[in-house]
Automatic annotation (TrEMBL):
Protein name: UDP-glucose 4-epimerase
Annotated pathway: Carbohydrate metabolism; galactose metabolism
Record domain NAD-dependent epimerase/dehydratase: where: 13-261
Species per Swiss-Prot/TrEMBL record: Inquilinus ginsengisoli
Assembly notes: Homodimer.
Pfam families noted in UniProt: Epimerase (PF01370)
Gene Ontology MF: a single term: UDP-glucose 4-epimerase activity
Enzyme Commission number(s) of this protein: 5.1.3.2
Chain positions covered by the region annotation Disordered: 339-362
Cofactors demanded by this protein: NAD(+)
SUPFAM superfamilies per the UniProt record, alphabetical: NAD(P)-binding Rossmann-fold domains
Length: 362
């Protein structure tokens, strides 16, 4: 798979949380495009095996100021992509202080070090969770920011820290508010592996695999088309492409903020039905009460990202998201470190899915 290469000289990019689900996919794309990547991660929820072999790896907890300064002392970074965070909406309701302290504290540590060492640009993983629910209409960058859970609140605070840091110190910043990241790298050897898993699509696929008896549906009394929550699922490869485009845009601009999603909303029931179609297996459901802090509906309007950076989601149709995730889970039933099994029947070969379309235009 050959890609368009960035302009010389090669840029050094520090990817925090690059052993995690989204960060590892972005790190892989950066390596494929010829960037020099350093991943720093404490492996609290990530996996060493997810880090691309050509990236440098530093095992460090970013809550410690000393360790992050050491990382910056060893190499001059042109850019930082900050993925490392606590990420679970449900859990954040039971640990609000941990979420704010760790997410804001980690961001402050990495950002201060980046400023002190003259790093030019900084991209933050933000989230749709900063917005309030909107059923029947999508969410652009002008929507009210009003987080419904401590996780979203912590990311809103991170966004504000970046705003003031850019004003005071001139570091160029971008926030990418992803909606629900899903899917896996075509090829079947990189994907989502959270332990315990709490995300809808991997859990649904574990039911299809016979590894769980059923999927719990958290609430059927929301004001949505079928009463279950509606989300916008965006393929990790399309997120990776958005990061590369943003990185390049930051060479000539700053203070960027984009909502990143497919623009299509699917209810929990629709996800279950789509996964039954893709896998050809039954997926039993059990109705449960609402999960605290879940907004009814979050669907992105990514028109700004499309217009300004030429981004186009190429893998985020639901069928491709579920099919690539299904290949990953089928080949690696125990996640990273488990044996590599053949492609599942009917899933197609890796070449059945197009390679990522990162053609950053300078
Ligand atoms: N997955 C989604 O749907 C989604 C949507 C919107 C935003 N985001 C954001 O994207 C980022 C990545 O999310 P993900 O789903 O890949 O999560 P993940 O848990 O798979 O990845 C997070 C990574 O950060 C590392 N990490 C966490 N705390 C750390 C610390 N103190 N020091 C060093 N490393 C640390 C973990 O080990 C892990 O590898 C997060 O900031 C998350 O809030 C994710
Ligand atoms: O067993 C389950 C798991 C989830 N859900 C529902 O499925 C939807 C999606 O849930 P989940 O996959 O846990 O993702 P979210 O809670 O929407 O959060 C994800 O998406 C956010 C952006 O929207 C990110 O910021 C978060 O980091 C990421 O975890 C929600 O309505 C859940 O209530 C169920 O019904 N049953």
């Amino acid at each position: 798979m050959k890609h368009h290469h960035p302009i010389e000289p090669v840029e050094n990019v520090l990817v925090t949380g690059g052993a995690g689900f989204v960060g590892s996919h972005v790190a892989w794309l950066l390596c494929e495009l010829g960037f020099r990547v350093t991943v720093v991660d404490d492996l609290s929820t990530g996996h060493r095996a997810a880090v691309p072999p050509t990236a440098s790896f530093v095992l460090a907890d970013l809550r410690q100021v000393g360790t992050i300064n050491q990382v910056f002392a060893e190499r001059q970074y042109d850019a930082v992509m900050h993925f490392a965070a606590r990420t679970l909406v449900g859990e954040s309701n039971t640990r609000p202080i941990d979420y704010v302290r760790d997410n804001v504290g980690t961001l402050c540590n990495v950002l201060q070090a980046a400023i002190d060492h003259g790093t030019r640009s900084f991209i933050l993983s933000s989230t749709a969770s900063i917005f309030e629910s909107r059923d029947g209409s999508d969410i652009d960058e002008n929507q009210v920011v009003s987080p419904g859970n401590p996780y979203g609140e912590s990311k809103r605070m991170c966004e504000r820290v970046l705003f003031w840091a850019e004003r005071s110190h001139g570091i160029r910043t971008a926030v990418l508010r992803y909606f629900n990241a899903a899917g896996a790298k075509p090829g079947g050897d990189l994907g989502e592996d959270h332990r315990p898993e709490t995300h809808l699509i991997p859990l649904v696929l574990q039911v299809a695999q016979g590894r769980r008896p059923h999927i719990d549906i958290f609430g059927n009394d929301y004001p949505t088309r079928d009463g279950t929550c509606v989300r916008d699922y965006v393929h990790v490869l399309d997120l990776a492409d958005a990061h590369v485009r943003t990185l390049i845009a930051l060479r000539s601009s700053g203070a960027l903020a984009y909502n990143v999603g497919s623009g299509a909303g699917y209810s929990v029931r629709q996800i279950v039905a789509a996964a039954e179609r893709v896998t050809g297996r039954p997926i039993p459901t059990i109705m449960r009460p609402r999960r605290m802090g879940d907004p009814a509906a979050l669907v992105a309007n990514s028109g700004k990202l499309r217009r300004e950076l030429g981004w186009k989601p190429l893998h985020s149709d639901l069928q491709t998201i579920i099919r690539t995730a299904w290949i990953w889970h089928s080949r690696h039933p125990g996640g990273f470190g488990s044996s590599c099994l053949p492609f599942p029947p009917g899933a197609g070969s890796p070449s059945a899915v197009d390679p990522p379309a990162a053609q950053p235009s300078d």
